[in-house]
Model the fold of this input.
Amino acid sequence: MRQSSSFTAGLLSMASLASLTQAELGKIQWKGLCDPTNATGPMICGTLDVPLDYTDSTSNKTLTLDIGKWPAAKKATAEPVFVNFGGPGVNSFEGLGSYGKEFQTILGGHSDVITFNPRGVGNTIPFSCYSNDSSRELASLQAPNDGTASNTARGEIWAQSTNYAQACYAQNGENGSLIGTTFAARDTLQVLDALRGKNALLNYWGISYGTTVGAVMAAMFPERMGYLALDGVDNPAEYFNG
Done:
């Protein structure tokens, strides 16, 4: 019951962010065909500037999202479908490049499929907890592999996780707080607004962690939800309280 109450309180806190307003920053700048992952189809890339910090209505700082679109295989007579491939940290361009044709087949071919690299992935606020590959490899070698190997293993894992969190903070202290589920939800709505206008409903397909993003968006923006598919569902209470 305590976990449920804290999760509900968390959603209410997220919903309060939805009341913040900022000026519209522009439209998607489509760059034309792209092939970041040897996509076997007509994948189109673009960019969109969005607010850097939705919690600061006085800030004019922005960041640039990389947008991917797999155009409708037939005449685009239906609303676009947004796909979040999960993670956190999955490169959405790789996902769409690999499975764009399959999504079009499943959806009937009349909707553009839209995705974007979330904060912390690709060029959108690159996020790494280590300054170079050598320090990353060293940390990986030092990490315990089995939490039940001995009566001290869990303590070792806890200590290693603490070191990892401290390394992440040291490397990303300035922008780390601007990466997370509520920002992913807000960014998704910014892309939808740029594509279809501020009254458009969101049709969304979330996979794995993308289901948590979908649940949070439904809590923050219930009036903006169209069709919502949660595929391979995470437990959001465990995600936020684990």
User: Anything to note?
Assistant: Helices lie at 2-17, 92-107, 133-142, 153-172, 181-196, 209-220, 236-241. DSSP finds seven helices and seven strands in the chain. Residues 1-24 have pLDDT under 50 and may be disordered. The longest strand covers residues 62-70.
